[in-house]
Amino acid sequence: MTPHSAHFNEEQLIGYHYGEAAESAAIEHHLRECTDCTRIYTAIERDLAEITAPVTPERGAEYGQQVWDSIRGSLRAYPGQEKKRWFSFAPGAQWKGFAAAAACLLVIAATFFAGRQWEHRNLQSPVGDKTASDSGKQRVVLVVLGDHLDRSERLLVELKHADPSTEGPVQAEARELLSANRLYRESVKLSGDPTLVSALDHLERVLIEVSNEPASLSQARLDELQKEMNTDGLLFEVRVLRSRVQGDVEQKERTSVATKGVSI
Amino acid sequence: MEGNDHQIVRAVLAGDKNAYGALVARHSQNVFRVAFRITGDEADADEIVQEAFMRGYQRLESFESRSEFGTWIYRITVNCALNMVNKRKSGTTYQIADDADPAQHQVQVADRAASPERTLLSREIEALQAKAMQGLTATERTAFVLRHMEDRSTTEIASALSIAPNAAKQAVFRAVQKLRRSLAPIRVTP
């Protein structure tokens, strides 16, 4: 190979510098003879020698432990350990298992007994005017509550599509609904329906916010209010509850008709 | 916990979460070093160390016993660092320590300046080098660090970056070209 017949390019020379050139022997031979390539290669070597790794900051012997301490809380053990815990032959481990099983059995037995007692008591109570009257009251409450949820739903829809000019009527409606909502929330709380209580609670907060806003609301404030109070989520919740209450009303009506049938 | 990495991995997969701490302790220095070299930032490197070990733990089931845990976690670290560089591309800094080996910082200059001046020149080179590193793409920078500072082969770089060997080779080449071009202004040929 003559010096000028086959020069090597920069890429090949860089590869050669890192000991990864395919034609390593040929380059070595060529560099001995070709001054041009030698000059280029010397420059590459010099430049690369200048680029040194930055000195890595010291990390003490306890660094690994520090890293581990910072991540261990976020890691969940692989399931192998769970199995081991339940079937372990370690002293006392099986007793823990038995104790847990016994506790479970006890809870199931207590639930069963309580259920039987409740059923027995309900069977013993006379089916008469009082039950019919209670059922009627419940139906009225459900109908009124359904109506309230219906109005609240409309208000939330209006709020969703409200622009600053329509804010006035929405606020008036919110004030009206607010006092009624308080009453319903209190009475539902006594009947013990946590989902309904929570929804009415959320609704109350929204109604308070809307009622107390100044008459002229900016679009930005409206958006903020919708976002902060998650009115979309509440609207969905109210819709679900309204359809549930509606279902309950229909069921009560059917029960009432059936009871009348029995009396006759 | 005593034992080799494979034994510890088996113990972790069997449910002994705390055994992983031994792997963290054993490999955290190496992981930190490569993370720091790629990012050039101490805080980022610390963050990468945590992320790499967390990812490692979560993917431990995919770790094949025929490979080395050190190599495996190294690869995860490179990926985390690459992501970090990509994320911080706009405002990253590359730190060069003051106590770098002076022998490797010599440059060909026409005037043999006095010691304080040479120190100043050395700092200028470092600053230029840092700037030049910032000018590289995340892949170029990572490939160059792995090749030039970590002494990894093209195959290893390609595997760590999940790219073809030829692409890894090209990335290193482009990085060297860019760095040489950036450092050219400070060089005065005798």
Q: Your description of this structure?
A:
The complex is a heterodimer of chains A (264) and B (190). Among the domains of chain A are: 10-49, no CATH class; 129-263. Chain A contains eleven helices and no strands. Chain A has helices at 10-17, 24-33, 35-50, 63-71, 80-87, 93-124, 129-160, 167-191, 194-212, 219-228, 231-263. In chain A, helix 7 packs antiparallel against helix 11 (231-263), helix 8 runs antiparallel to helix 9 (194-212) and helix 9 crosses helix 11 (231-263). The longest helix of chain A has 33 residues, at 231-263. Residues 82-90 and 260-264 of chain A have low confidence and may be disordered. Chain B has helices at residues 5-13, 20-39, 42-58, 69-88, 115-134, 138-149, 154-161, 165-183. In chain B, helix 3 (42-58) packs across helix 4 (69-88) and helix 5 packs across helix 8. Mean pLDDT of chain B is 82; it is low at 91-114. At the A-B interface, helix 1, helix 3, helix 4 and helix 5 of A face helix 2, helix 3, helix 6 and helix 8 of B.
Question: Regions of chain A with pLDDT < 50 over 5+ consecutive residues?
Answer: 82-90, 260-264
Strand content of chain B: under 5%
The outline of chain A comes out as: elongated
Question: If you compute it from the alpha carbons, what radius of gyration of chain A comes out, rounded to the nearest whole angstrom?
Answer: 39 Å
Number of strands of chain A: 0
- Quantity of strands of chain B, as a count: 0
Please state roughly what percent of the residues of chain A sit in beta strands, choosing from under 5%, 5-15%, 15-25%, 25-35%, 35-45% or over 45%.
under 5%
Indicate how many domains the architecture of chain B comprises.
2
